[in-house]
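Example 3.2
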Amino acid sequence: MPEVLEGPGLAGIIRQPASALVGRFGQPRLDTPEGDMRKLQFRSEACVLDVYLYPLAPGGEPVATWLEARRASDGAAVDRLACIQALSRPR
């Protein structure tokens, strides 16, 4: 079973399928499948957000279980929540 990232501000992302992430962030810059895992990358001038999706049950739909955020300019780690806010589309 994959590790699932927990924390404040992640409720609308963690355990969400790719369709919900695309609805929130727009089309991903990269969509990379690897076996039963899928990585979506969303990017703005401010930051890059990599979201890793795994099925939580055998044969289940992959859902977001982990994410990493970094500056677009040099790849240095940035605050996840700030990056999520920068990338989120108006609702």
